[in-house]
Specification:
35% of the residues lie in helices and 23% in strands. A hairpin with a 4-residue loop joins strand 13 and strand 14. By secondary structure, it is of the alpha/beta class. The strands form three sheets. It has a seven-stranded parallel sheet with strand order 3-2-1-4-5-6-15, sandwiched between helices. A seven-stranded mixed sheet has the order 10-11-12-7-13-14-16, covered by helices on one side.
Length: 439
């Protein structure tokens, strides 16, 4: 029996563990919080739950050496540490995180040892690459050229659960979502580079209707320009990757950024103070000023603006004492978002992924769309957990069964990698709807 080491037992891990156990693999789930690991293993005879933290390097070496493949679902900064141990003991590796330059530098060693180090094997990144590359390669095989490529993903609450003023609920850790709100953006639009600093991220959104799904805000996701080369889009004049949110999110978060509520720098002298005190400090309001009105003035908005109402609903104007275990605006706000904007146990989330291609052939131009709509299961797995961890689980299975035998450090853009994973995702109900229209 092949044995898999899974490092981390976060909110998206359970479907991976269940899939591997159901397919006859031994699984050791190592987590800082062992109770989470025990719950996911759920008494399975081929599963082991144990307590482990990243500082236990010798224990990591022992664990890696005893397994055939390691899955790192730790924060991204620890993946290279795990990868180097995998190299030491000639073991394969799978992650769901964006590939780093330090990971890329291990490519030669992985190839020499015949090891597969597959990164970005999740949802976004992951399924987005695989589903896009399948269409790109199909167009190219037919003699066509991709002239425009747009790909956008949203991890959202289902429409029936869209019942708070922010139009967003967290089905995973909110801090990462808040931090991503400060990312700079860069993409290729009609042959021109468009580039904006993080504070202008939410100024560059569009409104988009996804046929058969609904209307969303679409804002740019990090740096899309490298995907012109990664995806082999030599003829494309537009290359864009974005994020979907419900309408109203972008303006609200732009103002949150402007208020500096996402600053990670500790605030001195705020022990025992309140959320209202922080907002007063950030907008420079005096103690006797009406705080919502002062905030509106600072943001150059009307006091009755929807954004001001949303900030009030979240609690940024309340005389509520600040938590004592954190010390900066971002983490103060994270406490509120986790409390007020988490997906309920009786609610389901949804994943929307939508690709748009303009493909030019000798005798015609086609618009190709490919859309994934997936919902979580109330009381069971969320859609974000399924779509992040199942591609990784399938990759593990395919590597250990010899169906993915492509040594080196990779992202899943080669047919030898993405075809078996997409085929298995389809078997378990994660499918894209594709449409083609001649322009």
């Amino acid at each position: 029996m092949k044995k898999v080491l899974v490092l981390g037992a976060g909110l998206v891990v359970k479907p991976l563990v269940v899939y591997l156990l159901d397919h006859g693999f031994g699984v050791t789930l190592a987590s800082r919080t062992v109770s989470k690991a025990v719950s996911m293993i759920d008494g399975h005879p081929n599963g082991v739950a144990l307590e482990w933290t990243v500082d236990k390097t010798e224990e990591l070496r022992k664990l890696v050496s005893e397994h055939d493949l390691s899955v790192s679902l730790l924060p991204y900064q620890y993946h290279v540490q795990v990868a180097k141990v995998c190299l030491e003991f000639n073991k394969h590796l799978v992650t769901t995180s964006y590939i780093s330059d330090a990971m890329k530098e291990l490519d030669g060693q992985a190839r020499e040892k015949g090891l597969v180090f597959l990164n970005e094997a999740g949802l976004d990144p992951g399924i987005d690459h695989m589903s896009a590359m399948k269409i790109i390669h199909d167009v190219q095989a037919k003699g066509g050229k991709i002239k425009s490529f747009r790909s956008t993903t949203g991890a959202l609450q289902a429409f029936e659960a869209n019942n708070n003023p922010f139009g967003y609920k967290f089905s995973w850790a909110p801090r990462g979502v808040l931090m991503a709100s400060k990312n700079p953006s860069k993409w290729l639009e009609n042959g021109q580079i468009r580039e904006y600093p993080g504070e202008e991220l939410f100024e560059n959104y569009t409104l988009q209707n996804v046929p058969g799904v609904g209307a969303f805000e679409n804002y740019p996701n990090r740096n899309s320009v490298p995907y012109k080369e990664i995806y082999g889009l030599a003829d494309a004049t537009t290359v864009y990757r974005g994020t979907f949110r419900m309408t109203g999110w972008c303006e609200t978060m732009r103002k949150v950024v402007a208020l500096d509520w996402l600053n990670e720098k500790p605030l001195e002298g705020f022990n025992g103070k309140t959320y209202a005190d922080v907002t007063r400090h950030l907008v420079g309001a005096s103690a006797d000023e009406d705080l919502p009105a002062a905030t509106a003035k600072f943001l150059n908005m009307d006091p009755y603006a929807t954004v001001i109402k949303r900030l009030g609903w979240l609690g940024l104007f309340e005389d509520r004492e600040l938590p004592t275990d954190v010390d900066n605006p971002l983490d103060y706000m994270n406490v509120l978002t986790l409390e007020k904007m988490s997906l309920g146990s009786d609610e389901r989330d949804m994943i929307v992924m939508h690709h748009e291609f303009t493909a030019q052939f000798a005798d015609r131009t086609e618009k190709i769309t490919s859309t994934l709509l997936d919902f979580g299961i109330v009381g069971a797995d969320t859609s974000i957990a399924r779509t992040v961890s199942l591609p990784a689980a399938i990759a593990v299975r395919m590597i250990l069964e010899g169906k993915i035998d492509f040594p080196g450090v990779h992202v899943p853009v080669q047919p030898e990698i993405y075809n078996p994973i997409l085929d298995e995702l389809s078997n378990i109900g994660i499918n894209f709807k594709e449409e083609t229209k001649v322009l």
